Amino acid sequence: MATLEQAIDGYTKLREQRDQLRKEAKEKEQPVLEAMAKLEVFLLAQLNDMGLSKASSSAATAYVSERVSATVKEWGETLPFILNGHTDLLERKVNKTAVLGHIKETGQPVPGVKVTRMAVVNVRRI
Fold first, then answer.
1. Cβ atoms within 10 A of the Cβ of 62, count?
2. How many CB atoms neighbour CB 100 within 10 A?
3. CB 3.0 to 4.6 Å from 2: which of 6, 103, 106, 109, for a disulfide?
């Protein structure tokens, strides 16, 4: 079995290898992603021009779908609406930083929130 120092050094070398592989993969992937994005624009334009919602080739089917995003642009307007019977708009999570800040400031937990702490190992380069 390796010594503690050997394990730390070995971990660091593996992390460097992983980072290099990720960098190389990202560099190789970039032109592919750019080409795919151009083809998506072309396909959407063609389908729209032809009045089609889908088209097929021998390899695949291209189809139009809708991607939806909902973001709060004015919290001062949104919060009263939520509190007035629309709590279904909320997700079931809280801001970890705010929860820890509250605990630090008051010494009290946030009602109904479970904070879990676990020991993990981190390795930082010297």
1. 16
2. 13
3. 6
